What does this fold into?
Amino acid sequence: MEHYGRYDVIVVGAGVSGVCAAVAASRQGASCLLLEGSGLLGGLLSGGRLNRPNGIVQPGVHQELLRRARTYGGAKDEPQRWPWGTYSGMFDPEVMQRVIIDVIEESNIAVLLTAQFTYVIRTDDSIPGVFFHTKRGLGLAEANTTIDSSGDADVAALAGAKFAMGLASNTLQPITNYFRILNVDIHAVMQDCIANQDDLMNLFPDDGAERTAKEYALSFFANGFTKRISKAQSEGFNWIVPRDSIVIKGGMMEGEINLNATRFHGNALDPKVRTRASIELRKQAYCVYDFLKQYVAGFENSVLYDIAPTLGVRETRRIEGDYTLTEHDVLNEARFDDAIGLSNCPVDIHQPDGHKLIMASVKSGYGIPFRTLLPKDINGMIVAGRCISADSIAFSSVRNTPACALTAEAAGVAAALAAAQKSSVRQVSVPEIQSLLRERGIVLGTSHADKVLAA
It folds into this structure.
């Protein structure tokens, strides 16, 4: 076994939550090790090609990443407003990977990629270390506090935390896989969309103004094509995707389209299911591409360029925390004394047993309580990201990246304070955490006077 050192904070998982948590902790003065099982930093933001925040990105690390991406021409400020909420804009995943690397290195964070977390050391009062596997075998690192940003609550579950999965029927929102098509005539696609708006749920921009292909980059968005999918099926097209709509988004290059159109039902914690999903989702991507070339103008000369290497896993474990965020909280603009961020991310449900996508507004947003980050009866660790404590409907909002980033920023600050005070994150003063978050410009959600505006 190889010992990789002792740190103030270990962060397990280097998706958006892990990156934001590690940077937040480091900037608060903590030494930090960031562990990631894959070879990528950024998770869905980079390897998953999830190129649009589903909500407003608040100040903090996440907003800084977007701001830096804009300096490379890889993101847009232009907000998009929909009946269920306002989004901060789109970005290019590879540019996002670039700026994540910049910020991680500037923050002096130790990074270990292709290091698969395997087990946790637990005592009554702390989580003094974690085990992981690398190409050199078993590794161990120690820390005052461990942040579980695995998305799947891997650390919390192995530490003995209670958790929930799915709805009452024990079903999970489906897995997806983004992909990218090049050489698309986006002007022709827009004209097709305008002529067939009754076949769309959403279209942006929808003012009908003439634009160049360059102006559609990182802006164009359309969701629908349901009638044409049905028509294609009636004509014998072999539509193998278990959903009845396609989401297409303009990429950074002229003629680039990013797609969210695939769906696989199953538990991503099961390696056999995950393997099957990886294969089936690629087959679905080929099917969607063939459909677009045949039934939507502008795709005739297009090329299927790549399929994201990182699967879009929407739902697995959610911890049982000191407080569980509820559907009522999310839909009724709840405020909490211990809130660490105001989220306007919509309720976004891909039906576990159906073909539909359900979106619902959370209006002015809701505060995320710090207590949702603390696994019940577990000391020495904190969670960040989509595995925080929430019921199935509230989860459908907090799983979105802007909310994940808020929980991560708070987790990183709390873990750094705990290390400085040689205490547990449970012993850190919540008002002290909130004060530091306010200094970073984050709107907390403690009062109904709190409002979040687009960047």
Remarks:
- The chain has a mean pLDDT of 94.
- The radius of gyration is 21 Å.
- The first strand starts at residue 2 and ends at 12.
